[in-house]
Amino acid sequence: MKEESIFITGAGSGMGQMAARLFAEQGYPVAALDVNEKGLLETAENHQNIRTFNTDVTNYDAVKAVVDETEAKLGPIKRVYNAAAIMPLGKVVDQDIEIFHRVMEINYNGVVNVSKAVMPRLLERNEGELVNFASLAGWVPILYMAAYNASKFAVVAFTEVLAHEHKDSSVKVLCVCPPPVKTPLLDQARDTVWPKVFDQGEAIEPQDVLAAIDEAVAQDELFVFPGKQTRMGQRMRRWFPNLIWKNVHQTEGF
Q1: Using one digit for the tens of pLDDT, what is the confidence trace for 200-213?
Q2: Most CB atoms closer than 10 Å: which of 45, 97, 138, 139?
Q3: All domains in the chain, ordered by first residue
Q4: pTM confidence score
């Protein structure tokens, strides 16, 4: 068993779950956090070195307590995956105000809470990796995604500033910005509103995202754009925003 640990939020499904299992199979003790107890049990099944924590990332004190326990019992944290997120979609006027607040609480404030709780320990040791999950939606806004877009734009800005504040340290800070990924998160869009623009490209595999993260860590990159067309999508938004919006309106039909 390795002496360092891995800390993963959103570990009850999707990329968080896959990452937890992969690191466990590599011999790392893993702290797996989620509010989805059933999902956590599935994550830890047949993996004795995955320890589960039914923890809400919007509760800073609870997050900090798990960080403390992880370091005390599983070993110093080597890498953090801030993967917890929700994605209910809809027009701004149609969605309840509570949805906007909840999306920001989980997708953005959850990232802040974990970053604040774990970053001082990484800086004290001057090593480790903090991996915050944003999205291509953190660069490219589209119809029906105001709440999700806003939360991911916030993650992009927060992570970029954090990385530059500590650019002289050996701690690596990454911001992952994938396009739609084949995980249960997409089911939340299907259960609310499915943007037709999602059908213009095939969702990528979660293992491709995790591989892109490993490559970015090795190359000391801040932003990670998994998928063949993702980086171009980000550049198109920067260079030709009106063209992006024209395509969105034509595709969605309004």
Answers
A1: 999 999 999 999 99
A2: 138
A3: 5-252 (3.40.50.720)
A4: 0.96
